[in-house]
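Here is one record:
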Amino acid sequence: MTYEQVVAKVKAKYENTDASSVNGTLAIQVNLLGKNVEGVFYIEAKDGRVNVEPYDYHDNKAVVTVAPTNLMKILEGKMDPVIAYTTGKVSVSGDPGAVLTLIKLAKK
């Protein structure tokens, strides 16, 4: 899977997501680190929608570093995000609650 494919899959996952439960703006930056796949993108909940774009997000609530396969497993509900975090499959710098909020939106 290429960087572009990962971003496209995450974008599709959030395409029709209702983020009206999120007050203000909630954004995380995702750093992908995997075999032959590296890159940065962000997931932002704002104005009732979720945006996914292939850019850095400097005013984020958290920065997540994850392998692309683990990210997809988490967003598809095949891997528990808390277990992924506690076993070192995902690292979070900043507010882990913000990350969990955005993951829950993907599962709706």
In short: The chain has one domain: 3-107. The chain has a mean pLDDT of 94. Strands lie at 25-34, 37-46, 49-53, 62-66, 90-94. The radius of gyration is 12 Å.
